[in-house]
User: Fold this.
Amino acid sequence: MSIPTNIAEGCGRNGNSELSRFFQIAMGSASELGFHLLLCRDIGLLSAEKHDHLSQQTVEVKRMLTSYWQKLKGAG
Assistant:
């Protein structure tokens, strides 16, 4: 929930520099998610297969966030 919430908050701010900052915060949230997935796997709440699938999706989200963030930096 934190990733899209940060993006939405950034969209409600003024200008690309504010939006860019919230994309960076969303990236931090994606990193937290990666840790939580690892923790859930390690304590047996997620199978290794499910962890791998969700981790791959998290990496893809981080790639999208990075790409958009780079575009914002170039536009600012």
User: Anything to note?
Assistant: The CA atoms of residues 3 and 30 lie 6 Å apart.
